[in-house]
């Protein structure tokens, strides 16, 4: 069984299309754990979009806790400067990835998954080198296989846009947190 940590429906669409070429729907579980998203109304919109995708592909969807304050605290305790002083893809974002990926692998381990992956790893706007390296480290620590999604980020993004349009899926205009919203 594969646990797919899923940041949002648009990113999930082309990856699911790919994964379903060699895996059965019943062997994939979506895990929505994104307490970085702000405000709550935006979180709910993104979750609703993912529920639609789960229905389309007949996939099980697990929804993690929306613990935005804990996410903020983790970042504040890990970083020296005020959170709004970082640009996207700098240290704040790396800590944000860490927070979500750690929880995803914990959940995978507690629920006896053999394999895990994250949609964050094929995002042309993110530091995918960091995401893949950090996920591999967690995999070694937890003894769960990491499935790298070695797809071309540009072609994947193109396909994402086509699928978003075809299924009429909500597509967010900013990364997620209040700091990316303010830009
Ligand atoms: S910009 Fe995106 S990745 Fe960076 S901290 Fe905010 S939500 Fe996380």
How would you describe this protein?
There is one protein chain. With 183 residues, the protein is of the alpha/beta class. The chain has a single domain (2-181), classed as 3-Layer(aba) Sandwich (Rossmann fold). The chain is built from 7 helices and 5 strands, in the order E-H-E-H-E-H-H-E-H-E-H-H. The chain has helices at 9-19, 40-57, 68-78, 91-110, 128-142, 153-167, 178-181; strands at 2-5, 28-32, 60-63, 115-118, 145-146. Strands 3-2-1-4-5 form a 5-stranded parallel β-sheet, with helices on both faces. Helix 2 links the parallel strand 2 (28-32) and strand 3. Helix 1 (9-19) runs parallel beside helix 2 (40-57), helix 3 crosses helix 4 and helix 4 (91-110) runs parallel beside helix 5 (128-142). The longest helix has 20 residues, at 91-110. The chain is globular. The model has no long low-confidence stretch (mean pLDDT 96). Bound molecules: iron/sulfur cluster (SF4). Iron/sulfur cluster is lined by residues 36, 88, 92-93, 96, 175-177, 179-180.
Question: Which labels suit this protein?
Answer:
five-stranded parallel sheet, globular, alpha/beta, single chain, 5 strands, binds iron/sulfur cluster, Rossmann fold
């Amino acid at each position: 069984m594969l646990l797919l940590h899923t940041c949002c429906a648009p990113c999930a669409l082309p990856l699911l299309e790919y994964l379903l070429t060699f895996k059965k729907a019943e062997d994939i579980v979506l895990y929505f754990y994104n307490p970085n998203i702000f405000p709550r109304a935006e979180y709910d919109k993104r979750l609703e979009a993912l529920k639609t995708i789960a229905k389309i592909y007949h996939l099980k969807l697990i929804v993690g806790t929306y613990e935005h304050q804990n996410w903020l605290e983790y970042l504040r305790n890990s970083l020296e400067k005020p959170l709004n002083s970082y640009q996207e893809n700098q240290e704040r974002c790396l800590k944000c990835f860490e927070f979500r990926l750690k929880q995803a692998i914990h959940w995978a381990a507690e629920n006896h998954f053999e394999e895990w992956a994250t949609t964050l790893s094929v995002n042309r706007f993110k530091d995918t080198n960091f995401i893949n390296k950090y996920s591999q480290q967690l995999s070694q620590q937890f003894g769960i296989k990491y499935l790298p999604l070695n797809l071309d980020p540009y072609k994947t993004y193109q396909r994402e846009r086509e699928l978003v349009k075809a299924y009429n899926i909500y597509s967010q205009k900013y990364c997620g947190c209040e700091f990316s919203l303010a830009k």
